[in-house]
Amino acid sequence: MSITMELLYHYFVGPPDPDQWPEELKNNPAAGHGMYSFEQGFRLGLLLSAEALFPELLRP
Prior knowledge:
Layout: H1 3-12, H2 29-53
């Protein structure tokens, strides 16, 4: 894994935290953390694309 990806992962996702997982995945740590990681990555991707395509919308 590249150092950039590793830094972003640790900053946006962090260590496993069952309180962040969907209720139905509390008993499945791999799936719970995977789902949370995917959600955070998707959210970050949307924010980056919005900034790239419509920078005037995100600035006051």
